[in-house]
Amino acid sequence: MKISIRNNQKKIRISRKLVNSVIKTAPAEENADSEGELSILFTGDQFIQKLNKKYRGIDSPTDVLAFPMEDPRLLGDIVISAERALAQASDFNHPAEHEIAFLLVHGFLHLLGYSDKTKEKSNLMMKRARAIISKLDLTGSVR
Hints:
By secondary structure, the chain is an alpha/beta fold. It has one domain: Metalloproteases ("zincins"), catalytic domain (Collagenase (Catalytic Domain), 3-Layer(aba) Sandwich), CATH 3.40.390.30. It is built from 5 helices and 4 strands. Strand 1, helix 1 and strand 2 form a beta-alpha-beta unit. Helix 1 packs across helix 4 (96-111), helix 3 packs across helix 4 (96-111) and helix 4 crosses helix 5 (119-134). The radius of gyration is 14 Å and the shape is globular. The mean pLDDT is 92.
């Protein structure tokens, strides 16, 4: 899979090794096509809030947004707020790296069509995310 990573924030260091590990593991665990292109943007609350308002009609920051593409060669775009990741890592009492991994997996699952709009769908998505996260070399707990 061709991955484009952009980092336009300075709150946390983004490990390319972690990103590549997540994006290698997630398709394998989901039996998804590992070909194609994926774009990942790490940003701050202000920018992700603008996207959230424009595309979801919600005028507040969020942790992750996923934009699937219709072209089969393009998987889609994942946008992650580093500020939200830091806050949530603190809330869940785990390292920011773990939260970044979780948000990458969460965004990737959205690109594959998973939804968290209902409790049942959210539970399934969380189960799949945990299964993928368990395959990564992360010490300690992740959500």
